[in-house]
Amino acid sequence: MRYPNFWQRRGVFSLLLWPLSLITCAWAKSARKKGQNSAANVAADCPIIVIGNITVGGTGKTPVLIALAEALTLRGKTVGIISRGYGAKIGVEPRDVAESDRAKTVGDEPWLIHQRLGLPVVVHPDRVRALSQLRARYPEINVILSDDGLQHHKLARTIELVVIDGVRGLGNQFCLPAGPLREPVKSLLAMDFVLVNGQGLASDFKHPYAPNPWPVAFELSEVRDLFDDARYTIVEFIEQFLPAADSKATALAAIGHPDRFFDALRALGLKLETYPLADHQPVPAELMAHLGHSSQPLLMTEKDAVKWRDKKPAWHTQSGQVFAVCGHIPLSSALVDSVLTLLDERSKTAS
After folding, report:
1. Model confidence pLDDT, tens digit, residues 181-203
2. Per-domain residue ranges for the chain?
3. Which of 2, 60, 163, 234 counts the highest number of beta carbons within 10 A?
4. What is d(CA 164, CA 55) in angstroms, rounded to the nearest whole number?
């Protein structure tokens, strides 16, 4: 789904759709209340941290999950991950990403998470089923992270962590379809941690329902050649592939907020020809043909790159230069400490 401009303001379109948004808000509020009070919710025999968003569009939840999984592993936790596997035809039974041969069969994000972390990842649209298989196959796991699933209330959770885009914020604060919210903004009060990602950060994010947000920011770290795995720092890449002052690169992004990726590259001094696509959107054939004749280096996100590995070696640009831009979201020690403290407190209460 693309993020329309009118979601950022309360104008004619959003006001015309506002009555429909009341239905979305009411349904989401009811589902959350029912989930909180239901004894039928399925919990694991170990704590579950759900990392998601209350808005449509990319907020950076997957990089946050990767960073938190790394941090918890360093603190001695044995981490496993469940995910929906968006875009993949999972079938009746959950799929273990470790047994899959390509991203198409399990979804872009789960594949990327497993490749980056080497941790167990199980996917299924029903996260309860994914949870069941994860626990059966990996009984040593003592913390489970759910990639998204904030609105999947059948799954009980120990901690809810929401990520907000620091540029778009909460938009016009209307629910779908009049605005970007999946549930009423007041649901922020139920969240244990609110992270604000990117430009604006927590110092500029003001909202009565999220009085103490945590600032995080995505940092670009290296550029990797997609076909020979050569790695370059940002400076090395610019010096080697964009040496002239007027050199341009082509940038492609099929993520929830492509402009965040493009702006991060521009902030490093790159001049770009950009192609934003909808989240998970396949590259149109016409664009593929155009890119194939380009003499400029082609840059894309890690999430996009997992799909392009299947094109090797049949596809190439005229320049033969196709790169993934890699990065991460550092989490402060204070945030990780707070998550672990709350995790321990609630685990003791549950037992």
Report:
1. 999 999 999 999 999 998 655 55
2. 5-77+142-217+330-350, 219-328
3. 163
4. 8
